[in-house]
Amino acid sequence: PASGELPPIDPTVLDGAVIGFAQVGSESGWRSANTDDIKRAAEANKVDLQFTSAEGDQAKQIASIKTYITQGVDVIAFSPVVETGWDSVLQEAKAADIPVILTDRAVDSDPSLYKTFIGSDFVAEGEKAANWAKKEFADASSVNVVVLEGTTGSAPANDRATGWKNVLGSDTKFKTLASQTGDFTRDGGKKVMEGFLAANPDIQLVYAHNDDMALGAIEAIEAAGKVPGKDIKIVSIDGVKAGMEALAAGKINYIVECSPLLGNQLFQAASAVLKGDTIPTRIVTVESEFDQAQAQAALPDRQY
Ligand code: GZL
Ligand code: ZN
């Protein structure tokens, strides 16, 4: 789907508008930066933002959306923790004539149930990570890989796995020894990597679905007396401050950026929807990718 452009914010429309946002949780540095940016943009546009965090629990996220429906907010926005299970609450919002905007993660529901989905192309992110690995290990005869998966059932976990397989799935040189969810958290990444190291003495590459799990893996690799970025290479996704610092320090080898700064686009979409303008059903965020030298150069200007 086309990435599309959104019209500029109409301040008169947003000033005092009640917008309910149901956030995933606070699992990672990316999530914190995403929350901060949404609150910043709401403040800047005088939006009356109602904000909840589901702490990774879909039932809580659904309950929060139902509360917004009862409250009769002007717009509902959320980042769905997992892809499935949203049809009925989205139908309730439609029946209540409350427009819904998805940010960050997608749902597998009928697209007529929400106005737009603003977020990254996670399949492309997985493909970028795999293309780096293909080049990095061009001279290797075999590469043992372990994968730290994101939250089970979430669009980023599903699609980052798909993108990786699109590029390397048929490349028999790359052997996936193990693949397990670390739930996008630093502690999850550390614990799962400890298990991987105990069971597999010869790992060459970690594919982490986000920086927080990569940072946990670094702790486990160092505790095992190995050198992250050298003995075991790491490719990750996000580009949060701590990840970029590890990349610049050589403990991570490559990071594919996934921007959490969705606040302005969220309120551009809300402004257009409240004016009755039609907007593209899919807005793809623009993002980059970094090797170690590029991270060193970019660090001073990073916003998160
Ligand atoms: C991606 C976002 C993911 C990040 C993780 O857009 O949904 O969730 O990659 C975050 O860091 O926890
Ligand atoms: Zn899907």
UniProtKB/TrEMBL annotation:
Keywords annotated in UniProt = Signal
Domain of life, source organism: Bacteria
Compartments in which it is found: Cell envelope
Q: Which GO terms describe its molecular function?
A: carbohydrate binding
Main location (coarse class): other
Q: Which residues form the Periplasmic binding protein domain?
A: 19-277
Q: Which GO terms describe its cellular component?
A: cell envelope
Q: Which family does it belong to?
A: Belongs to the bacterial solute-binding protein 2 family.
Q: What is this protein called?
A: ABC transporter substrate-binding protein
UniProt organism field: Nakamurella flava
Q: What is the lineage of its organism?
A: Bacteria, Bacillati, Actinomycetota, Actinomycetes, Nakamurellales
Segment of the intact protein contained: 118 to 421 of 421
